[in-house]
């Protein structure tokens, strides 16, 4: 009897022999770990007692794990959508510029960086100190362009000074000022580095007819030896300090202190008024946004992911865009369609299969994101940025490891990925039959 052959004439035994090493490797690295994880998920922390569905029930009752599930949902919706949208925009726009290839190279370059390195980069980008973090340096620069910054944050009077708190961070003189007197407004609490560079030694200005004069200075002598409430030779004027004359709660006059601490107010309005130093003089310096705080840490980490993967989406979409028939685009333009209509009605529908591939690939990728969250999120905000892959690591290898819960999380992640993979495989088979 003749030996059986396959359709291609190859002996099945020979084919099985060639496939056997790969099948053994697949079984050892994929099938066995999956089977063991499923089994282990039904046992307790020690692995000795059967726990039934207790580990799975804990996934939906523990607040930390529920936060991870919620964040995974945010990741699955937001990150792939934004990365795909940016990739589409970049791919379409770079077709119309002469230096499009160079632009694509720059956008794709982050793909050459590992997740670990990208996490370290963005941990520095999101640093709270504007002198170190790029994001806050830009944010503070824009803020300070449109908002007036405080002159002397944390400056304050001593109890022996002729000033007292007026509420809201402002200070007011304890008694009204009079014509023919020099108003003294001493303050402390200003670091030498915060003093204006052009501030000069303070001195009391000469009396002027029809005007009220005064001096505002830093009542602190470096090295000691100065006297409170007295202008000493080495003490500097508080240049730029805002001074207001207030009567019955109304500002009747205002001025700004000069480099030597002197200021002048018209006596007609200011005589008998209290002098107020408004709170705008003492606001804390704006230090930007707390990017890695509890409320913004997840969007911040997603931003770093988009920075890495937008280039991947752009390259795949650009390849699909190259196969779009130009005749259809030109025919639409000839019929009177504008560029937005051509993009929305022609380009996007023709790119739908490519967009689906990119979107599904990124969804699978973000469901198992771990590195970026682990590196970027500080310890104080890691619970707020938690995702399932990170919780899997913490539950399995943390200080209070519970392999039962860790295995249950691994099984849930597998179940989340499987429908997306099945959808992608079916879509690819339909495309192959066309």
Structural notes for this entry:
By secondary structure, the protein is α+β, with helices and mostly antiparallel strands. The chain has helices at 12-40, 54-59, 63-94, 100-108, 115-125, 134-146, 267-270, 297-322, 326-334, 339-350, 352-367, 371-376, 388-397, 403-433, and strands spanning 163-167, 170-173, 182-187, 211-218, 242-247, 250-256, 262-266, 274-277. A hairpin with a 2-residue loop joins strand 5 and strand 6 (250-256). Helix 9 runs antiparallel to helix 10 (339-350).
Keywords:
434 residues, alpha+beta, MetI-like fold, three-stranded mixed sheet, 14 helices, elongated
Give a concise summary.
By secondary structure, this protein is α+β, with helices and mostly antiparallel strands.
Instruction: Indicate the low-confidence ranges by residue numbers.
Output: none
Separate helix tally: 14
User: Main sheet?
Assistant: 5 strands, antiparallel
Radius of gyration: 35 Å
